[in-house]
Specification:
Keywords: Heme, Iron, Membrane, Metal-binding, Monooxygenase, Oxidoreductase, Transmembrane, Transmembrane helix. Helices cover about 55% and strands about 5% of the residues. The protein contains 20 helices and eight strands. The chain is globular. Bound molecules: protoporphyrin IX containing FE.
Length: about 525
């Protein structure tokens, strides 16, 4: 052996531990890489979005539509409208073929929702305290059927047009107080929809339009800000340490409990007053004017089902979660689309004036009037096509192997619908990036589609229970605003060539300002 070989051997001996460590680390990293980036064997027959590309897109805050066009569309055709994506951390089969979306939404094989978001948080978390794991959105099987049976009539009966119309004069005041009558469409919509959900769901006044810093508005904001805290999301069990050291975290956590207490108190008081009214038969309000809580408790009293105290609280909280921001984003996007499409705005105004009169005074639409706004309805629907607040539904999990469009979906696979891909597919919609309410006219493009192509509210038995509520709220707001103002984007708006979102989601950014001009 030469002296050089001997030296190498000696060096290898000295560094043997490091070498072993490096080999183990390489092996472990390889495993991690395979675990994270490699498509599991059972899914290799489904075209997949590379995990690295997805995270690069998310990290770069690529707009949702751009990501869909760049990463999803090219592989959609390969998989018959089905593709695989690891989003955020688990492999999920996404469906964006209209016929197959219909199967997912309507067939019993796909009826079971995964124990997703709500089951993730521990018992002591603010999320569990507020929403539980058994609310209407999260539950399955008999529990879901029982709850939906009591809630369906409440949502059917309640159409609180009066609540919505009563809030519009305050919207006008806020708008006119703003500098140059220019105001964030998104903030304005949030204030309106918070007061609307408070009044219409629980007969409670958040007073957000009167004062955007009112006590309960702040508690509400703190609560939802707290749900976005990263540490409790990633390590829920460490939240108690975070709370011990951070005053801000404590405030956000406690706000959720205070808000929950408010909901409990509202329910207790309502139950008590209903019992009293029942004995004196003194509640003469029309069904459509009653708040959802009253109607749900009345349904219980009429023997249509029962609510435990917790179930009632979890569902009342759910109405906030599901009904406030969604409608607010939807309305803000309508305001935007009308601002950048003045012809469509004018046509909608004509419809509002035809129904409510041309006299230059505020007129509140009635429930009957609201049935006569077909064009405004088309605008809302087209806006929801282009800016659906949710890009997906809750994950569904088939319990057996199923075939979907000739593709085998192994049992227990997470299955979802890609709403953005469905709503922007140029093979389904003509010029999908163009705002064109006529698609939803009677006999229009939408109605010639096969399968299901418009699902901002999902579909099938788990369709959004608040669909009519939200549509009515937007209808009333738009009709009254259209009569009172014209509006456009301010000259300096950065959104002139399309909305620049803060997140890669269809959420209206606070910077989305609109300039109103009074008509009378
Ligand atoms: C533009 C406004 C809205 C949009 C886009 C929207 C969208 C949706 C979607 C996509 C789902 C299905 C989610 C899933 O599959 O898990 C859903 C369910 C639900 N939504 Fe909405 N929603 C809106 C407004 C509302 C309002 C105003 C309320 C209540 C006042 C509400 C209450 C609910 C509830 C309780 C569910 C669960 C239904 C069930 O699973 O039986 N939503 N919504």
């Amino acid at each position: 052996m030469s002296s050089r070989q001997g030296l190498i051997r000696e060096q290898l001996y000295i560094y043997r531990y490091y070498i072993a460590l490096a080999a183990a680390a390489t092996f472990y990293c390889g495993r991690l890489y395979r675990q994270f980036f490699t498509v599991p064997k059972k899914f290799r027959h489904i075209p997949a979005i590379p995990y690295y590309d997805l995270w690069k897109s998310l990290a770069g805050n690529e707009p949702l539509l751009k990501r869909t066009q760049r990463l999803v569309f090219p592989i959609l055709s390969k998989g018959n409208g089905i593709y695989l994506n690891k989003f955020p951390f688990d492999w999920t089969v996404y469906v964006a073929n209209p016929i197959l979306v219909k199967t997912v939404l309507y067939k019993p094989e796909f009826a079971t929702k995964a124990d997703a978001v709500f089951a993730y948080f521990p018992e002591e978390s603010a999320q569990t305290h507020m929403f539980g794991q058994d609310n209407l959105l999260a539950s399955n099987g008999d529990s879901w059927k029982r709850q939906r049976k009591i809630m369906n009539p409440a949502f059917h009966r309640s159409m609180p047009v009066g609540v919505f119309t009563n809030l519009l004069p305050q919207v006008f005041q806020v708008t006119e107080k703003a500098d140059n009558n220019t105001i964030s469409a998104s903030k304005l919509s949030k204030r309106l929809t918070l007061d609307a959900i408070g009044k219409a769901a629980f007969d409670f006044n958040f007073g957000s339009l009167e004062d955007e810093n009112s006590v309960w508005v702040k508690k509400y904001e703190l609560t939802f800000k707290g749900f976005m805290d990263v540490i409790p999301i990633i390590y829920p069990k460490l939240d108690y340490i975070y709370r011990a050291i951070s005053k801000g975290r404590r405030e956000r956590y406690n706000a959720a409990f205070e808000l929950t207490k408010l909901l409990d108190n509202l329910a207790d008081e309502k139950r008590k007053s209903l019992m009293e009214k029942r004995s004196t038969a003194s509640d003469n309000r029309r069904q459509s004017d009653k708040d959802l809580l009253t109607l749900m408790l009345e349904a219980e009293m009429a023997g249509e089902g029962t609510w435990s105290k917790k179930e009632l609280r979890h569902n009342m909280a759910l109405f906030f979660l599901a009904g406030h921001d969604t409608t607010s984003h939807a309305l803000a996007h309508c305001l935007y689309e009308l601002a950048v499409n003045p012809d469509i705005q004018e046509k909608a105004r004509k419809e509002a004036m035809n129904v409510l009169g041309t006299e230059l005074i505020d007129v509140s639409p009635t429930l009957e009037d609201c049935k006569n706004f077909p064009y405004i309805d088309m605008i809302i629907k087209e806006s929801l096509r282009m800016h659906a607040p949710f890009n997906e539904i809750s994950v569904r999990v088939p319990h057996n192997d199923v075939e979907l469009g000739g593709v085998l979906i192994p049992k227990d696979t997470m299955v979802n619908v890609d709403i953005e891909a469905l709503h922007y597919n140029p093979d389904i919609w003509k010029n999908p990036e163009q705002f064109d309410p006529e698609r939803f006219a009677e006999g229009g493009e939408h109605y010639s589609h096969e399968g299901v192509t418009w699902v901002p509210f999902s579909g099938g038995s788990r369709i959004c229970i608040g669909i009519n509520f939200s549509m009515m709220e937007q209808r009333v707001a738009l009709a009254m605003l259209l009569r009172k103002y014209t509006w456009k984007l301010p000259e300096s708006s950065k959104h002139k060539n399309g909305i620049i979102t803060d997140l890669p989601l269809n959420f209206a950014p606070d910077s989305l300002e609109v300039q109103f001009t009074k008509r009378y």
